[in-house]
Amino acid sequence: MKLPSQKEFVRIYGEGKESLMRYRHLGEKFSRLYGQEQTEFFSAPGRMELLGNHTDHNGGKVIAASIDMDTIGAARPNGSQVIRIHSEGYEGEIRVDLSDLKEVERGHGTQALTAGLAEGIQRLGFRIGGFDAFLSSSVIAAAGVSSSASFEMLVCAIANHFFNEGAMDCVDYARAGQYAENVYWEKASGMMDQLACAVGGMILLDFQEKEKPVYRRMTYSARKAGYGVVIVNTGKGHADLGQEYSRIPLEMREAAYALGAERLCEAGLDDLLAAWGRIPSDRAFLRAMHFFRENDRVKEAQKAMEEGQTDRLLRLLNESGHSSWEWLQNCYCPEDCKGQKVALALALTRLFLDRIGDGACRVHGGGFAGVILCVLPLEAEDAYVDYMAGFMGRENIFPMEIRQIGAVKLPLEK
After folding, report:
1. For residue range 364-397, what is the model confidence (pLDDT) as tens digits?
2. 6-48+64-191 — its CATH code?
3. pTM of the model
4. Any residues with CB less than 8 A from the CB of 314 and at least 6 apart, and which?
């Protein structure tokens, strides 16, 4: 069996030995399951979001980056109209008949997501056929680092290579993923997660153009500035919180409608303040306030990064964290007000950062549960990991590296 080259592993992962073993295991499992000696290999990273919390779905701006956790797959066309996928660590096979997508049960499950991707790809004018795949993932599931978007972008990369001769771009991937989540998962998500996984590296995203978001790569490196990034998994997953996520864009749009707009990006903070009294929901008003101020923070953070002003960036990250907690209100679920693992992790982290007098922290991703993000001096990273391990367990603390390569097919050794 041919495997990707050592050079390719180093390009993506920064090392070759462990990655070679990981992909060899993947290929061997695929061969045993599907009886095919040769396969192609694919990878799609998870993502982290630095600024722009819950703004993408209302046409806002986001700074995000892909991370060094990924979903990898061995895949091969099977000449049929059936997609068959096995995922390591999960029982059973995901099986989707492309000729009968409407019969797939919606609302949950990877089968629904796969069917939605297939339909989304076709609605965009691209092709998809049956394929067999064996997947393995290091992306934390249901925790806010986009394990679902990583899976989606991997499937898009497979479809692009096997059935479209590379004609799909990252925005096409993201639109297919959003369609799958909106229609087949019934979750009102934007495209931020998908683009951050598809493009790779740190990127500035602008979602004002609804069907064609714009992204730009950024060269800023926290590590070169002397700072590390740590993600803490607070222990409660996202799987049962779809309604909480969906309420945020819906409430923001309620506020937008009161301003005579479809999305908040079409109005401004002064318009919102002038509409006091026309928005019956206080929470919708607060969430709209968060949108406008968060958008401004992203613009200021872009300048701070371009000018190498890390202190200014950390201030903005802390402000973003406070806004998410107080205005956006996505640090705990109102129906379970005694379960506040995200808020607790943030409070514990704030104690640590106050003691060292440096760094920033904020809720990460969709919120309500899952992970928080901490940026702190490299020399304090090990101490922070040990400190938080005492509360959350060492297995839930993840120092992060930014991965420069997005969703990709890995070329085989010649």
Report:
1. 988 888 899 999 999 999 999 999 999 999 999 9
2. 3.30.230.10
3. 0.91
4. 358, 359, 360, 375
